[in-house]
Design brief:
FAD/NAD(P)-binding domain; 3-stranded mixed β-sheet; 267 residues; D-Amino Acid Oxidase, Chain A, domain 2
């Protein structure tokens, strides 16, 4: 039986939380997010901008010490997505204060060159501005009783991993399939869901944490060294091995075939 803030109650077989990094359901069932969120040292701002660089399925980045700006084409190159990165954690901002978040980005990035001044100008007019900490969720279990979590609510790997959508969709597929395989026995289904997903999640979270170490170099020399490495990458003998390791993480799960199972009917 679930009780709502309105005072109404309703019975459900299971309750699935897919409400993001700052999951309200997770807080109700597992406790405050401070127990499970791990900050990776950066704050991120995202918003859509015109694709005035005419990027064709490309992403370009610019960095100065501790800060970086990235633009990538989206919507079949009809628009672009900006990502601004500055140092910080959840204690440095109020998640309800959008104006304060934008002011924080300007404080850290107002001196930067390249397309950054244009991006900061575009920020105020963006209808989809989003700002948050670069954080991961580490839970000892993704279920309790008849409640289970999926996606960022359960195992956010951070936007820096590039795997948030993949983890969420794969997690939803596996959980739905295991509920069908267990004929609705939530205890069995939740255990199998976690068994099949846990190693895959751990590998992707490690990749996200490793990526965070490189997202904004700490000194001018480190920025210079980072760009030299990028320029040399096409000529590095171990490039194929590096790519293979990344693809092993991204594709590191054997998805079960649940097509033979009947769909569960909602009660």
């Amino acid at each position: 039986m679930a009780a709502f803030a309105s005072g109404n109650t309703e019975a459900f077989d299971v309750v699935i939380g897919a409400d993001g990094l700052h999951s309200g359901l997770r807080a109700l069932v597992f406790g405050p997010e401070s127990r499970y969120l791990r900050d990776l040292g950066y704050l991120l701002g995202f918003f859509t901008v015109p694709n005035h660089l005419e990027l064709d399925h490309w992403m370009v980045s610019y960095a100065e010490p501790n800060c970086s700006a990235t633009i990538r084409s989206i919507r079949d190159n009809r628009a672009a997505m900006a990502m601004l990165t500055i140092p910080g954690d959840r204690s440095d901002y109020d998640h309800r204060d959008t104006a304060g978040q934008k002011a924080l980005l300007r404080k850290h990035m107002g001196h930067m060159q390249w397309e950054v001044p244009w991006l900061l100008d575009q920020m105020d007019g963006a209808a989809d501005f989003y700002f948050d900490s670069c954080s991961q969720v580490h839970l000892p279990s993704w279920s309790a009783g008849r409640v289970a979590l999926i996606g960022d609510a359960a195992f956010c790997s951070s936007p820096i991993s590039g795997q948030g959508t993949a983890l969420a969709l794969i997690g939803a597929y596996v959980l739905a399939g295991e509920l069908a395989a267990a004929d609705g026995d939530h205890a069995i289904a939740f255990a199998e869901y976690e068994k099949k997903m846990r190693d895959y999640v751990i590998a992707n979270q490690k990749m996200g944490a490793d990526n965070a170490k490189r997202v904004a170099a700490r000194s001018r020399f480190a920025v210079w060294a980072q760009y030299q490495m990028i320029r040399m990458l096409p000529h590095v003998p171990g490039k194929a091995l590096m790519m293979r390791k990344m693809l092993q993480v991204i594709n590191g799960i054997d998805l079960p075939d649940y097509s033979r199972l009947r769909s569960l009917k909602a009660v």
